[in-house]
Amino acid sequence: MLAFILRRLMQSVLVLVVVVLLAFTMFRFVGDPVNQIVSLDTPAEQVAQVRKSLGLDDPVPVQIIRYLYHVVQFDFGISYQFRQPVVDLLAERAPATLELALMSSLISLLVGIPMGVYTALRRDGFFARLFQSISLIGVSLPTFLIGILLIYLFAVTLGWLPSFGRGQVVTVYGRWTTGFLTASGLKALILPSITLGLYQMTLIMRLVRSEMLEVLRADHIKFARARGLTTHSIHFRHALKSTLVPVITIAGLQLGSIIAFAVITETVFQWPGMGALFLKAVQNVDIPIMAAYLMIISALFVSINMIVDLLYAFVDPRLRTTIKN
Amino acid sequence: MSVPVLDIRNLHVDFKTRHGVLHALNGISFSIARGEVLGVVGESGAGKSLTGSAIIGLLEPPGHITGGEIYLNGARIDGLDFESMRHIRGKKIGTIFQDPLTSLDPLFRVGEQLIETIRTHLPLDEKQARARAISLLADVGIPAPEKRIDAYPHEFSGGMRQRVVIALALAAEPDLVIADEPTTALDVSVQAQIIEVLKKLCRERGTAVMLITHDMGVIAETADRVAVMYAGRVAEIGPVRSVVKHPQHPYAQGLMGSIPPLDQRPSQLQQIEGSMPRLSAIPKGCAFHPRCPLVIDACHQTQPELRASGESFAACIRAGEAA
Amino acid sequence: MAQEKTSGQANRVQESLWSRLRNHDLTYQFLRSPITVAAAVICLVLILSAICAPWLATMNPFDPKQVLLMDANIPPVWIEGGDPRFVFGTDDQGRDLYSAILYGLRVSLAIGAGGVALAAAIGITLGLMAGYFGGRTDAIIMRIADVQLTFPAILIALLVNGIVQALAKGSSRETWAFGVLILSIGLSFWVQYARTIRGSTMIEKNKDYIHAAKLVGQPTVLIMLRHLLPNVIGPTLVILTINMGLAIITEATLSFLGVGLPPTQPSLGTLISIGNKYLFSGDWWIVTFPGVTLAVFVLSINLIGDWLRDALNPRLQ
Questions:
Q1: CATH code of the domain in which C159 resides
Q2: Is some CB atom of chain B closer than 8 A to the CB atom of C5?
Q3: Under a CB-based contact definition with an 8 Å cutoff, are residues B72 and B5 in contact?
Q4: Which residue of A has its CA nearest to C309?
Q5: Chain C closest-CA separation from residue A172 CA (Å)
Q6: Sign (positive/negative) of CA torsion A302, A307, A313, A315?
Q7: C32 interfacial to chain A (CB closer than 8 Å)
Q8: Which stretch, B143-147, C28-32, C213-217, has highest mean pLDDT?
Q9: Do C146 and A257 touch (CB under 8 A)?
Q10: Could you give the angle at which helices B110-121 and B126-139 cross, rounded to 10 degrees?
C-alpha cells in the first residue's frame, strides 16, 4: 500500500514540476518583469540595475531555483494590474470559487446518479426518454448560454433570484468568507451552481446510464439472475455497486473540470472568484496571476486525482490485493 | 415410472431479426430422470446453451419460445410470469456457467454471495445461512472454509472459483442442475477435479444434471445418457455407451469417428466434410444432408423424427446403417 | 455446401457499392430513427448555409464599409420599429443579424473543424507511435498525455491564448486569432484520440498481417499508415463527432469571454456576449438568434454522435 502511495506521489510531483517550469517560462520569458517597474524613458543604466536587482542576469537554473523557492512559500509575485501580491488576491477569492465548485459537484452527483440509474433501468419509459433528451440538451448548450438563460428566466423575468454577486457573506475562521450562512448568500449560490453543475450532471447521468447498461449484460449479473435473486437485489445491490466504482473516479476528476469551468460561470454571474480573476489576467496579460493560477489549479487537480485513485483502491477489492502485493 | 425431473417436448426457439426469422431450436425433445446425468454435446452454435437458457427463462431478446412445452417435475414452466420463474431459478434449477472468473461478483465476498442466495430461497436467518454456506464450501472441497468464506472471488484460483460456483448452484437444493461448459475455461489438470466434485455432489443429493459441453471425454466419463445436437435439433439420444460405441446417426458417427483413438496412431485425423450451417442458411429437410455420406433424395424434403435405432434414438431415415 | 459458398461469393461481388450502402446495418438503423434523420438534415442545412454564407447573406458583416452605426439595435422585422432590410434585426454595431449569424456559423465551423482535425492528426500520430513502438516512446507520450489530462480543455485554450497574446504584443488580434484558436483546440483535445488509437494499435500490432508485412521488409511508416491505420481508426469516428460539438462550444466560449475572435470578425459566441449586455434593456434578439443557432447546431451534432456511438457498439445490438 505504501509503495503505491509513494508511486502516485512521485507522479504527482512530476506533474507539478513540469507545471512550475511552464509557469516560470511564462513568468520570465513571456511576461516582462522589468517593464512593469520602469517606464519608457528610464535611462539604460537604471534599467540594467533593475534587471540585476530582480536577478534576471543570473543563469537560468539559478533563476528557476529561486522561483521555486518563492513558489513554495506562496510568493507568486506582484500583479501587473493591481500592484498587489498575487497570493493575497487569490486567497481573497478562493472561498468564492471553492464554495461554488462544492455546491455544483453536489448538485451534479445528487441529481445525476439517480437519473442515470433510472434511465438505465427503465430504458424505454417516458421519463427515461425525457431525462435523456434533457441530458442531451445539457451537453449541447455552452455553459455561458445556460447561465444567461437562467438569469433571464429567474432573475429578470421572475425576479426570484439575484442575477449577480454572492449576496451577503460572513467571515469565519478569520479568512474564509462564506455564503452558506445567510439567506441572500444561499440564494445567490443557486443559479451559478446549477449553471456550473449542469454540464457535469448530464455527463454523470449519461456515464451512469451507459455503465449500468453494460453491467446489466455482464456475466455475474447473468449468474445472479440464474440464481433467482430478487430484481431489487440484482439492480441495486450488485449492478449499482459495479456501476458506481468507475463512476466515482470520473466524478472525482470532474471536480477539477468544475473548478476550471468556474471561469465562465463567474464571468456570467459576476461572481468574485479566482476564475474571474484569471480571465481578467488573460485579457490584460497579467502574467504573475496567470502563472500563479496555473500552479494552484495544478496542485488542486493533482491532489484530487490522487485522492480519487486512493478512493478507487479502497472501493474495489481487487485493487487492494494488487496493491498489497 | 416416476415423473422425470425435466421433460422438454418439441421446443422451438426463434430469433426475429431484420434479416428474417432465425430458427435457433427446431423441435428439441428430451427428458432427464431424477439423479440422472444427461450430456448434451454438439459443435458451437448447435443450440446447446440456448436450450439451457430457454429452460430457465433467460432467453436474450429477440429470442423467444415459439412452440413446445417444458415440464419441471410434471408442472409446465415455459410461459410462466417473471416472479414465478424467479422462484424456480436457484431453488428448483441451479445453473453453472462457463467462466468462473466472470460469474462471481468481484465486489462481494464469496460468503456474502452464498448467504444471499441461500436466504433468497430458504427461510434461514443470517447465522444459519452462514453455517450452511460453510458446509457447502466444505462439500465442494474448499479447504478451511470457515476462513475462505470471507474471501473475495479474485483471491481464489480458477478451479477453486468454479467450486464456489458449484456451491452457489447447489445452495438451495435444486432438483436439476444445468452445467453449461463447466470445465471449458479451466486448466486440463483441474477439469477432472471439477467434474468429480459435480458428480459426487449430485449423486449424493439425487440431483439431475444437464451437462452441456463439446468435450466428448467428459461426457463419456460422467454422463448416463447423451444427446447429440446439430443445428438446433437433436440428432441422436441414448445411453452413453451405446452412442459412443455404436452411434446410429451419421453425424454422431462422424463425431465419434473423429476422436483419435489412444491405442492407434492414424496418419490423418478423420473429419466431417464442411461445417455446421449458419442459422440463416439451414438446409431444407434434414439439416445434416449436405455433409452426409448417406444422403438420399428423401433427406432433402422432410426433417426426420427421432426413431429407435439400436439402443438409442436417431433422427435419420437411414439410422443404423454403417457409413 | 462448398457449392453454396462459391455462388454466395459471386453474388457479393456483383452487389454495387450503392446497394451495399443501402442494405448496410448502419443505414437501416439510421433510417429507423427519425430524430437522427432530422438532426442530420438540420446539420447539413446549417453546414451548407455556413459554407455558402457569402451568397446567402444580405451583407458582409465583416466588412466595416457595409456597416453603419446608425443602423444599430434595430429589432426584427415583425416587431414595431423593424426594418425589412434586416430580417432578424441588427446588433450594436449595425450589423444585420441574419448575415452575422451566417458568417459567424462559418467561422465557428471552420475553427471547430480545423481544431478537431489538428487534434485528430496529433492524437492519431502520437497514438500510433506509442502503441507501435511501445517502451520509452510509449512511456513518454503517455506521461505527457497524463499531465495534459489533468487540465480541462478550456483552461489549456485560455492559457495558449494568453501566452500567444503576450508574445504577439503589438500586432492586432485579427491576424493571428483564427490560427491560435485552432491551435488551442487542437492542443486541448488530442489526448482522447491518442489513447484510443494506442489501445487498438497495441492489440493490432501483434496480429499476423502486421508480422507478415514486417517480414516482407516494408518500411515502418508504410506499415503504420497502410495496414494499421485503417484497422484502428474506427472508434475515432465517434470521438470526432462528439469532439466537433465540444470544439464549437469551446470556441464560442472563448469568444464570449473576449479572448477569441476579434469583434470585427464576430463568431456566434461574440454575438451572444454583445447581446448579453443588451438583454436587460429589452433588446432580446441580439442574444436569442445566435444563441438558438448555436444550440441547435451543437445539439444536432451531438445527436448524430450519440446515435453513431450506439450504432457502432456491437454489444448494444
A1: 1.10.3720.10
A2: no
A3: yes
A4: A210
A5: 30
A6: negative
A7: no
A8: B143-147
A9: no
A10: 110
**Contact at 8 Å (CB) between A279 and C257?**
yes
Number of alpha carbons in the 13 Å side-chain half-sphere of residue C313: 12
**Nearest C-alpha of chain B: how many angstroms from A117?**
19
- Name which of B18, B230, B271, B289 to mutate to probe chain C: the one with the most chain C Cβ atoms within 10 A of its Cβ: B18
Question: What cell numbers appear for A172 in the block?
Answer: 469565519
User: Is B21:B15 a contact under the CB 8 Å cutoff?
Assistant: yes
Q: Say how far apart CA B119 and CA B102 lie, in whole Å.
A: 23
C 9-48 residues inside an 8 A Cβ radius of B: 28
- How many residues does the structure list for chain B? 323
Query: B30 forms bridges with which residues in the sheet?
Result: B8
How many CB atoms are located within 10 Å of the residue B16 CB?
13
DSSP codes joined into one string, A130-188: HHHHHHHHHHHS-HHHHHHHHIIIIIIIS--S-SSS--S-EEETTTEEESTTSHHHHHH
The answer to whether the CB atoms of B108 and A238 lie below 8 A apart is yes
Instruction: State pLDDT tens for residues A228-243.
Output: 999 999 999 999 988 8
Is C78 among the domain residues?
no
DSSP string, A247-273: HHHHHHHHHHHHHHHHHHHHHHHT--S
> C1, B18: Cβ pair inside 8 Å?
no
Q: Domain spans of chain B?
A: 234-323
The grid coordinates of residue A251 equal 466524478
Domain carrying residue C136? 52-57+88-312
Q: What confidence tens digit (pLDDT) does each residue in A245-277 have?
A: 888 877 887 888 888 889 999 999 889 999 999
Residue A318 CA to residue B122 CA, distance in Å, equals 30
- Nearest CB to C150 within list A143, A144, A301: A301
Nearest in space to B278 (alpha carbons), one of B263, B296, B270, B290:
B290
Nearest-CA neighbor of A115 among A32, A197, A28? A197
Q: How many CB pairs under 8 A join A and C?
A: 111
Q: 3-state DSSP call for residue A54?
A: coil
- CB contact A175 to B (< 8 Å): no
Q: pTM higher than 0.90, yes or no?
A: no
pLDDT of residue C23: 60
Cβ-nearest to C158 among A14, A140, A282: A282
Q: Is residue C76 part of a domain?
A: no
In a domain, C129, yes or no: yes
Nearest Cα of chain B lies from the Cα of A317 at a distance, in angstroms, of: 6
Residues of A in contact with C147 (CB under 8 A): 14-15, 18-19
Place of cell 492519431: C124
Determine how many CB atoms are found less than 10 A away from the CB of residue B52.
Answer: 23
Chain A residues with CB under 8 Å of C307 CB are: none
C-alpha angle with apex C101: C100 to C105, nearest 5 degrees?
Answer: 115
Cell of A254: 470532474
ipTM value of the model?
Answer: 0.88
Record: contact B290-C4, CB cut-off 8 A? yes
Q: Is the per-residue pLDDT at C115 higher than 70?
A: yes
Q: Give the total number of structural domains in chain C.
A: 1
Q: Which three cell numbers stand for residue B113?
A: 454471495
CB B55 within 8 A of CB B8: yes
Shortest CA distance to B171 belongs to which of B115, B218, B255? B115
Flag whether C32 is in a domain: no
**With an 8 Å Cβ cutoff, is C41 touching chain A?**
no
From chain B, pick out residues whose CB is under 8 angstroms from the CB of A228. Answer: 86-91, 117, 120-121, 172
- The closest alpha carbon to A135, from A110, A104, A112, belongs to A112
Give the pLDDT band of residue C48 (cuts 50, 70, 90): confident
Q: Does residue B86 contact residue B136 with C-beta atoms inside 8 Å?
A: no
Q: Is C168 on the interface with A (CB under 8 A)?
A: no
**Which residues, in sequence order, are bridge partners of residue B314?**
B236, B307
